[in-house]
Amino acid sequence: MVDLNPTPGIHHVTCVAGDPQRNLDFWVETLGLRLVKRSINQDDPSTYHFFVADAEGTPGTSMTFFPWEDMKQGKVGTGQVSRTAFRVPEGSLDYWEERFDEYGVDYDARVERFGETVLPFRDPDGLPVELVEVDIGDDDPTVPWTEFVPEESAIRGFHSVTLWLADPEPSMDLLRTMGLEEVGTEEAQGDAPGDERTRFAANGTVGKYVDVLPTIESGRQGHGTVHHVAFQTPTDDDQMAMREAVSSKGLRPTQQINRHWFRSVYFREFGGVLFELATKDPGYTSDEPLDDLGGRLVLPGEFEARREEIEANLTDVTVPRAEPVEADD
Asked: Is 25 within a domain?
């Protein structure tokens, strides 16, 4: 077997949304993330694929969305990512609660989890999301986007995902195989029907945690649910080694698929959650300059030849832009 480099953590999380304009308004303006790629679902080019992230689209910061307008409302349950959590700087949750009040965001009271303060909320499609206060070091790899939110409060990539699983043990063994280490357990609070939360940690800085909760709560995919979670396998060699390790556990990963901004391998883990392995390169600046990320509809590969047909079937959207601040006379 090829030597296995542990995953450093989450690469991206992809979710199902409804109205595309509402999705952009919330994630770009209300939450202050940057639209780093405006594209299409490469398996269903009749719908958009939006990528929001930090200022540079750093691995471990991009939340992505398929706005399938005709799909029904989903329900979070077993075999799904039940919560996606983002890091924010220590002391910034007061700012976020005030902002949520201003924008009418549905949020809950703060909770303490593994010694950290967590603010749970939901996006307009009902997707469960959390902000977690952490110490952001000077050497942090993320770059805050400050068009709508000041640097001292800006979201700085993923903190964790929470998996709801009917039988957690095989999935936890898989996480260990992927290089994550069990770092603690604590009693689950009111955010889940399980009775114990187990935390696993990768060796990276961003998106390093995966929490596991047992539940038999039934769910269905639709608006407001996570489609899949992608873990970083920075190089092709890392990815192939991880693919081999996953196969050795009896799972059936796909062959490598070129997703234009990264190369991917997919598989369903034992509990039913769709996992992806994603490379670091070529990245979001491979087809757009850094300053222009998200500025146009990017149609990868063979889809460019179908631009007129594809654009005709997509809902028109406008990317939120902050009003320029006028200088004092």
From this structure: yes
Which residue matches tokens 């700087």?
A: 89
The number of domains in the chain is: 1
Write out pLDDT tens, residues 193-229: 557 999 999 999 999 999 999 998 899 999 999 999 9
Q: Tens of pLDDT along 151-194? A: 999 999 999 999 999 999 999 999 999 999 999 999 887 655 55
Distance CA 21, CA 193 (A): 33
Identify the band that residue 321 occupies on the pLDDT scale cut at 50, 70 and 90.
Answer: very high
Max CA separation in the chain (angstroms): 69
Q: Is residue 319 part of a domain?
A: no
Integer angstrom CA distances of residue 44 from 9, 48, 97, 103, 137: 27, 9, 37, 32, 40
- Rg over alpha carbons for the chain, rounded to the nearest Å, is 19
Phi and psi at residue 164, to the nearest 5°? -100, 125
- Please identify which residue in the block is written with the tokens 């489609």: 227
Please provide residue 23's backbone torsions phi and psi, each rounded to the nearest 5 degrees.
-60, -50
In this prediction the pTM is 0.95
328 in a domain, yes or no? no
